[in-house]
């Protein structure tokens, strides 16, 4: 049984992934009455036009800041009673939730208090130590303190949990005695195997698929490319930067003639775009040190996509260590000179026909496989239910 919100009003949806749910799995759709998140608040404000329009939009969006733990909190009013009704039928052996959004963890705690069914919480992103938190602001610090109390309350009701490796310390700090399985993010290798590369023979294409949350931005890369084509104008007709999904307005106007910005696409198409690229891109800000611990889910796709990777991520951090398995070029998020050198090096190799295809070690391939991770989660569920 799966619960899914009816019209989640999220940035993007992927009907193709929904179609892969086996027909024997029953999906219960529960209405979602929360605010629309089809566009990030910062992007909506920047697109408002006039100063007066931006101020008015800020005022309309302000109530979302009071929701705890996040803007999805209104869903609790519908999903909790719906889940309780089903679980009280006695047909189910366990309740499994996955976050983010962390409203789902709150739902799990509320549901578990009403039913005698063990709860396993799957924790896919840090909640309290996320790199996108701007704790320099007093209002963010105040909300963060309230959320920390809520997180401790949620963890107190769990029967077991699975976490990604970069969230393990956070969860253990909240409750050291909680039965815990560390299950990293990963990739469906069979889905990737279905892509056949179709490169643009006329250009050396650098591609990014996804969204720029928090302070993440391609600005440093764009500045690096601007400097490179200024000093080597012959490369202006060679380099192409392809962004599929989100693109921050603050990054526009730097090398727009080299940049292609495209709307979100289904996951399978995003994998194809990465396969078609000559170099795949990933960005991760430092986030007051939290970024070094954070592992974006895209890391696993890039490990297995079979393309060279340019990663603007904290050197020595978790993402950099994982991407070392495919010899990615690691550049600090604020290092314009380093980004320029990496782009120039990749372009020259592309021109010479010597752009190497990285090989993913078998041990890493096994570790990041969805099959391996599904087996680990199934084992945790069996042990919890059996206990």
Task: Give a summary of the structure in a few sentences.
By secondary structure, the protein is an alpha/beta fold.
Describe the protein's architecture and organization:
It is built from 15 helices and twelve strands. It is an alpha/beta fold. Helix 5 runs parallel beside helix 6 (138-156).
The percent range for helix content is 25-40%
Shape verdict? globular
Order of helices and strands: EHEHHHEHEHEHEHEHEEHEHEHEHHH
Which class best fits the helix and strand makeup?
A: alpha/beta
Average predicted local confidence, pLDDT: 86
Spatial order of the strands in the main sheet? 9-8-7-10-11-12
Task: Please report which band the strand proportion falls in: under 5%, 5-15%, 15-25%, 25-35%, 35-45% or over 45%.
Answer: 5-15%
What is the chains' assembly state? single chain
Query: Largest beta sheet, briefly?
Result: 6 strands, parallel
Number of strands: 12
CA-based gyration radius: 22 Å
Spans of at least 5 consecutive residues whose pLDDT stays below 50 are none
Number of helices: 15
* End-to-end gap: 22 Å
């Amino acid at each position: 049984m799966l619960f899914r919100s009816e019209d989640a009003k999220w940035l993007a949806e992927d009907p193709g992934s929904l179609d892969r749910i086996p027909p024997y799995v029953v999906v219960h759709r529960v209405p979602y009455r929360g605010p629309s998140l089809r566009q990030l608040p910062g992007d909506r404000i920047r697109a408002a036009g006039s100063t007066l329009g931006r101020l008015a939009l800020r005022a309309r969006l302000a109530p979302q800041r009071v929701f705890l733990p996040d803007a999805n909190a209104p869903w609790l009013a519908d999903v909790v009673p719906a889940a309780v009704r089903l679980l009280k039928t006695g047909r189910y052996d366990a309740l499994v939730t996955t976050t983010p959004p962390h409203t789902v963890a709150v739902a799990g705690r509320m549901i578990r208090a009403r039913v005698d069914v063990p709860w396993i919480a799957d924790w896919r992103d840090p909640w309290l130590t996320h790199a996108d938190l701007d704790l320099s602001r007093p209002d963010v610090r105040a909300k963060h303190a309230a959320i920390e109390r809520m997180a401790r309350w949620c963890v107190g009701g769990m029967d077991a949990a699975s976490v990604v490796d970069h969230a393990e310390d956070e969860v253990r700090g909240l409750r050291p005695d909680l039965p815990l399985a560390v299950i990293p993010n990963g990739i469906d290798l069979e889905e990737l195997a279905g892509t056949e590369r179709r490169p643009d023979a006329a250009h050396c294409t650098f591609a990014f698929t996804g969204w720029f949350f928090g302070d993440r931005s391609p600005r440093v890369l764009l500045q690096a490319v601007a400097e490179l084509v200024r000093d080597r104008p012959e490369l202006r007709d060679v380099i192409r930067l392809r962004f599929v999904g989100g693109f921050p307005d603050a990054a526009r106007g730097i090398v727009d003639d080299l940049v292609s910005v495209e709307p979100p696409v289904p996951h399978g198409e995003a994998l194809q775009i990465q396969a078609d690229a000559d170099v795949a891109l990933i960005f991760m800000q430092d986030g007051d040190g939290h970024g070094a611990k954070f592992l974006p889910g895209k890391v696993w796709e890039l490990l297995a996509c079979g393309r060279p990777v340019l990663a603007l991520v904290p050197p020595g951090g978790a993402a950099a260590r994982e991407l070392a398995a495919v010899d990615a070029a690691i550049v600090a998020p604020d290092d314009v000179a380093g980004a320029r050198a990496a782009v120039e090096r990749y372009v020259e190799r592309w021109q010479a026909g010597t752009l190497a295809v990285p090989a993913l070690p078998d041990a890493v391939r096994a570790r990041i496989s969805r099959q391996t991770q599904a087996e680990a989660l199934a084992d945790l569920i069996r042990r919890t239910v059996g206990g």
